[in-house]
Amino acid sequence: MANNPTGTAGLNFVYGARVPIVYGSGRASDIAAHMPWAGGGEQILAIVDPGILNTDAVLKLFSSLEAAGYEVNCFDKVRSDPTEHDIDEAADLIRTVSPDVVIGVGGGSALDTAKLAASVAADASGAGSYALMAHPLPERLTRLVMLPTTAGTGAEVTRTAVFTDGRGCKTWTWGEAMLPDVAILDPLLTLTLPPHLTAATGLDAMVHAIEACTNRDTHPFIHALGLHAVRMVRLNLQEAIKRPDDLNVRGGLLMASTLAGMAIDGAGTALAHGMGHALCTVAGVHHGRAVALALNAMFPENAKAAPKIHARIARALGVRDRGDTAIELALKGARAYHDLILQTGMDISLQNDGLSVKDLDRLMDAVGSEENKPICEKNCYLPSEKEMRNLFHRLLSQ
Question: Final residue of a domain: which of 158, 185, 212?
Answer without folding.
Answer: 185
